[in-house]
User: What shape does this take?
Amino acid sequence: MFDGVSYGLLAGLTMCGLALLLAFGAKVHRWYVLSCACALAAFAGLNGLAPLAQWPAAVLVLWAACRLQFVRQLLRLQDVAPRLDRVAQATLVVFAIAVLYAALETQRLWTLRIVQALAVASTVLLAAGAVKAMPRMPWPATLFLAGAALLLGGLSTAWMTSWIGPSWAPRQPNLAQAGVIAELMVFALALGMRLRADRAAEARGTQHETKEPGTDALTGAASRAGFENRAEEWLLDGRTFSLMLIGLNGFDAVYERHGQAGGDAVLAAIAHRLREQVRADDMVARLGPDSFAILLVGSPPRQKLAEMAIRIETAGARPVTYEGRLLAGGELSMGIACHPGDGDTLTSLLEAAERALAHCNRQRMGPAYAFAGELGQRQRAGGSAS
Assistant: This one.
């Protein structure tokens, strides 16, 4: 009876995950379906009820690998803990080797011990990632930790190797099997909480678009109207400030390669990286489909502005992770103008920054930034020489 209930629960969880996959098509749902299906096939094989009865341990390794991939997607480890995510990706190589070993090895004792070790090691790794993800997605992270505790409790109470021990008989309750199923049930709840959080984020984005005209809904940066209002305020107050106009070179190709959703993800990531480079009083704004601007309080030395431009160029070029894929980042060029040296109105400052940006784009060699003030000096020097 225990095995019948187990198979029924796993089949139900698989169908639930499949329905979510068909409805939303996200990779996180795909890995959940594969985790449930592999667990169902492995348990049936261990009881001699499936065609995979010769290799149930290999299928258990596949379950552990799919589980690892599912939790990576669930917690968005590539964003919240990139170093741990790289370790998790490297662990998949170990899983691949373990699958081959389990498929060829006739001693099931050792293969089941390998499964147990991999399940425990990957759980510890993912638990560290869940702790880092807790501030951004508290419920999915908390539910993962609860499910992981159930799994580890089942593994420690009833070793997976008991499936081949002298006391084991098919259809006898096994707490390791129960731990796997309990964890998958908690994961289903975590998946629902993640889906709810995603829908809430989309709703907040729609509210920003309709209620906050000073904010760009896609990137979270200031809109052009918000940028102009802030700049005019600073001009009226007589503040000194710097304007950095940023263009994304050849960004149309990003949309062609990755589609609308992928291109939007790259834009949002670049806006986030720009905000990481500025202070609280500065402003990052999106001025057009493929252009941004930064308003910097004060007049930093030229060397400081150049160092900042280099950091921005490096940050923008980093690949962007989207739905488990690495998308090419943006190739950024920057034109820099300073108030009051390069203009005393917003129009004149924008024109100066645009000239510097155009000069930067014409250069085949050299830095990815140009200063409007230096261009003016070169033009004056050229005119006096003639």
